[in-house]
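Worked example
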Amino acid sequence: MTNFTIMEIMVPLSEYATVRQGATLLDAVLALEKAQEEFEHYQYRHRAILVLDGDRRVVGKLSQLDVLRALEPSATNDAALKQLMRFGFSTEFIRGFRKQQRLQADPLENLCAKAGGLMVEDFMQTPSEGEYVEVDASLDIAIHQLVAGDHLSLLVTQGDAIVGILRLTDVFAAVFHLMKEYQLT
């Protein structure tokens, strides 16, 4: 019977896509592309970039969705949208309003060109307390944290240092392997 440990299935920090604070979104996307090309851990590619401070400590995570958020039209009408939602306008009406905003915005090519120069700090997510797991914690603890916090990954710590990232996709692969193993024995 196989018994997976967090150390066995995590991605070491040295193999993960990272950028320094002050990097642009283009720098982050290029780092992600490079890490995906070099990484062969199972068949799943990286879906986020870790943001490091000057001391190489993780201070944030930039997901693919965070990068796409940078392409959204300006938030000038967000207050109006919140008011509309509060007054009970339908999701369909609000979707139409957003679509109208999108049609009036710059073409995608211009949005991409502008977004490439934006700073990662403006779009990254700062890890919450529940997004850390000790390297020697049990896999069931990590599963609980992923599920309870609705996280796609956890930062793996060893003492005060972040040593890797535990991705939902790798935990799922390990659980899937265990399920098959138990069914065949």
User: Anything to note?
Assistant: The chain has a mean pLDDT of 85. The two ends are 9 Å apart (CA to CA). The beta strands are 11-12, 18-20, 48-52, 58-63, 132-134, 153-158, 161-167. The CA atoms of residues 60 and 127 lie 6 Å apart.
